[in-house]
Amino acid sequence: MIKYLFSRHIIYSLLILVFYISCNGQVKTKPTDHLKNTDTITIGTPKLVKTQGSGVSHNVHCSLKDTQGNLWFGTTGEGVYRYDGKLFTQFTIGLSTNSVGAILEDKSGNIWFGTDDGLYKFNGKEIVAVPFDKINSRVTILSMMQRENGTLWFGTNKGVYRYKENVFSAFLNNESILNSDSLHLKNTESMLEDKNGNIWFGSYVGEGISFFDGKTLARLKPNVTIKHFGYVRVPSIMEDSAGFIWFGTSDGAFRFDGKELTKIGKKEGINSVYTIVEDKNGNFWFSTESITGQIDYTGGVWRFDGKSFTQFTTKDRLVHNAVFSIVEDNDGNLWFGTRNTGLSKYDGENFTTFSE
């Protein structure tokens, strides 16, 4: 079922440090439950309105711009929202849980949702579950990607799976893979296919950064000191327009040039980087989480123009300093998903709040 939502009021965000995998208080819905939500519609600026009773520890965890220009926002307590430039539409019917940690559009225009209770697909009309074959226990989908050859890949709490012609296969079940570091790829939180066809994996905990070159799966051996590198969390991997690979980690942002790994923003004290995005002007944006949730030096969003850094926080009218997701719309605006299911838009000069 779809709801068109309008704003009721704006509140300041609070915070507790909660990761997607271990979110407590996640709200589950059934079709009959969703029918009970009869919110009063008030005229005003379209906003992301909470209807499922999520608390201050929930967040807008992931985001996507589809080929039609719609923006999608996955939350850890309110299901999924779609923004068409005018209205927010909330989707919960068809999902067995309101905790959505990954969103992907495939080459056919289907929208996929990775949740803490399995995999779902929106075909333009309805959301349907896509069950994992031969896996009877609960599967948490942490990351998704589609390779150039059309194969879908899913990073889960049970390892990495490939999906082709409606069949799932465990990536590491391929006997031809040389797994030189005995990696299991469980809890793979981020994945990327680079322009050379290499596959990169970022671990939630335990295996750091690894890559597959088509024959060998191996860990990336850092040339810089990274605290507890084998246990560093890697929630995001991206390739920039120049071909450099960037990693957002629990120890900050790193850039890989094919030979060396460089920590970016070390002097500025940038840490706990969840998402890295390159905008159309070539600027890099880092979403970070402050430890206390208050206005401090490590929270908010950072912009890097290649030479200098600019920090944006609640002092600049960002809705919350704990920022998890970033997406750029067709007009060049940046949208930031935050703690307490917050959402801010930045037009290059000002922040506008699009949440309660």
Architecture, according to CATH? 7 Propeller
- What is the CATH H-level superfamily? YVTN repeat-like/Quinoprotein amine dehydrogenase
Q: Major sheet: order of its strands?
A: 1-5-4-3-2
Give the rounded overall mean pLDDT. 84
Largest sheet: 5 strands, antiparallel
Q: Give the strand content.
A: 35-45%
Through-space gap between termini: 21 Å
| Backbone CA Rg | 19 Å
Question: What is the CATH class designation?
Answer: Mainly Beta
Assign the structural class, choosing from mainly alpha, mainly beta, alpha/beta, alpha+beta, or little secondary structure.
Answer: mainly beta
Low-confidence stretches: 1-45, 291-297
Query: CATH topology, anyone?
Result: Methylamine Dehydrogenase, Chain H
Number of strands: 30
What layout of secondary structure does this protein have?
Elements: E1 2-5, H1 31-34, E2 60-65, E3 71-75, E4 80-83, E5 88-91, E6 100-105, E7 111-115, E8 118-122, E9 127-129, E10 141-146, E11 152-156, E12 159-164, E13 167-170, E14 178-179, E15 188-193, E16 199-203, E17 209-212, E18 216-219, E19 236-239, E20 245-249, E21 252-256, E22 261-264, E23 273-278, E24 284-288, E25 300-304, E26 309-312, E27 323-328, E28 334-338, E29 342-346, E30 351-353
Parallel strand pairs: 14-18
Antiparallel strand pairs: 1-5, 2-3, 3-4, 4-5, 6-7, 7-8, 8-9, 10-11, 11-12, 12-13, 15-16, 16-17, 17-18, 19-20, 20-21, 21-22, 23-24, 24-25, 25-26, 27-28, 28-29, 29-30
